[in-house]
Each structure stands twice: as structure tokens, then as C-alpha cells.
Design goal:
81% of the residues lie in helices and 0% in strands. It has 383 residues and is mostly helical.
Length: 383
Amino acid sequence: MNDSTKSLTARRVVLSGFFFLTGICFASWASRIPDIKMQLGLSDGAFGGILFFLPIGSFVGIPISGSLTAKQGSKVMVIIASIIYPISLVALGFANTTTLLAIVLFLFGMAGNLFNVAINTQAAALSKLFEKSITSRFHGFWSLAGFAGGLLGGFFVANAISPLEQFVFVAVVGWVFLFFGHPYLLPGEPNKNHVSKIWNKPSPLMWQFGLIAFTNMICEGMMFDWSGVYFQDIVKVPNEWRTTGYICFMGSMTTGRMFSDNLINYWGARKQLVLSGLVVTLGLIVATAYPHLIVSSIGFMLVGFGVSSVIPTIYGTVGRTTEPSKVSIALASVSSIGFFGFLIGPPIIGFLSQVIGLRWAFLTVSSLGIITALRANQLKKYL
């Protein structure tokens, strides 16, 4: 069976598997963080400093990944990333000193973004062939892998299996999937004339898309890092219930990504982004208006539904409005701007919490949903 005879549906299923692979590699690491921290005997502060090497590696890797994917082609880079990302995961299991862990986390972050840019370039190309939005569901499989990785980690912990053994298991399964799945990737024509740069200046349109990603990623970063603290300090739930907000957020975000393609195809990307922004604002207002377990959980679910389709919709639009040979560069530019929001969001919330309190800090961030809606409405020509 050659590339021209492989069905689009088969390609879509396999690409979903590659999104799942990226998610479960990351979730496998995240599920064993407490074990690795304990093995190295580090304090919370010292370990937190080392963890920062992962987002640094991710941020450094975004523009490099865009240039490599443009030059070599997305299929080649998905194959390479499918090999080295699991290798870097396994290397984390071997990291027995703080210095080694910091170095490997940096490389793990870079490899993860190489994978991210390559598979999203594939998703943009496949979406064009389908002539409809299919990107959100791919990201849904990434989110679903987060749950699967957490459950898998819990199973290995319960059976006293080391992080290294878990990471090796995930890597081997990933490589088996790569062996059978790589023929279904789109060819992804390389651009041999591309001149590699550390940073490719985004076009004005990509800046606009990037700013929408930026505001959305501030919200996502806040929910990832501060939802547990909010439920503990503001909602004042028992300790065993403090992850409720995070679970509600992640559950609704995963569900939203699985179904938002249908909404985008029904009423268009612009209306979806406007609605998403307004739902984020509504969710944070609900969560802060009456800090109660049920009410705040509903609010966090709304935030999850709101943010779920923003990044996939933006990435899909970038792919649709960009020349095929420049998609990876455009995606890398937009990702860089958005990821900066993910990095600075949690520290900003910490600062605001010190000044006005965590509850008011969450309410302040609700304004970003309105900004998302307004920016999307201004870009209706392209959405």
C-alpha cells in the first residue's frame, strides 16, 4: 500500500496515536515526580528549581523545532521525535544526581517540543485534506493520555515498580507503535531552501494568533499550577478534596477537545473562539463569586470547556492560512508567543495573590476571556 492509497481515516487514527504518545510520555514523567524527588532527597524549593529546566528546554526548543521541521519535513521529524522523546524519558529514570536530572529535563523539554511542532504540522496538513476542522480531537487524545499516564503511574507505584521500569515500558510501547504507524504519516515535503534561524519573526497575522494563544495559555497555566491551592485556601476543602478543581478542569478540557471540532465545523472558528473566551470568563466568575465545593467545581469545568478548543482552533487556522512549506515555522512562532503566557501566568498569579488575594487574582484573569473573544471577533476575515 503506497501513500496515495492510504485512507484519510487511517491517517487520522494513526496521527491521534502519535498525539497520545506525546501525552503519555509527559504524563508518565509527571506521575513519578514524587518518587524521583524522594530518591534524590531534595527539598520542595530545590526540586522546584530543577523542574524549571523542563519549560526552559521547551521554550528554547520551539523555534529550533520549527526550523528543523521546515527543512526536513514533518514526517521525518515525527519519526525522529518518536525515537528521542521516549529515550529522554528513559534517561530521566537514570538521573541519579540533581545536575544530571536538570540536564535531562532540559533535553526532555526540547524533545517534547520537537514532537509537538512536527505532529501539529502533520495535523494542519491532514486537516486541509479533510477540508474541515479535525485538530481539536487530536489535542483531545493528548489530554486523554494525561489521564492514562496518571492511571498507569498509579498502577506501577502500587506494585512497587520503579520509575525507570515504567519509563522503559512506555518507550518500548511507543517504539512499537512508531514501527507500525509511521507509514501512515503524510509525506510532509521538506523545504531544502529554508534558511535555519534561531528565531523567525512572526508575520503580523501570526502575532495576532499568538496573542490569542498567549491569553489562553495564561489561563491554562493558572489552572494547572493554582487550582489545587485555590481549592485548599479559598474553597477550604479537606486535603483529600483539593485536587477536585484540577480534575474538573482537566476532565472538561479533554471532553471539550473531543467534541469541539463538530462545533467549529457547524458555526466556524470565529464563533467558537468568541464563545470559548466568554465561557472562560463566566467560569472564573462563577468559581470566585461563591467559593463552595460544588459551585467552584462547576466554574472550573466551564473554564476547562472554554480553553479546550482555543489552541487547537488557532493551530488549525494557522495551518489553513499559511503556505504548506511555512506551516511549521508559523506554528513555532505562535507556539512561542503562547507558551510565554504559560510560563509567566503562574508567577503573575502568585504576585497578584500577594497583593489582592488569590480569589481576586482569579477574578482578574477572567478578563482575559473577554480579550480572547474581542481579538477573535476582530480577526473574522481569517477565522
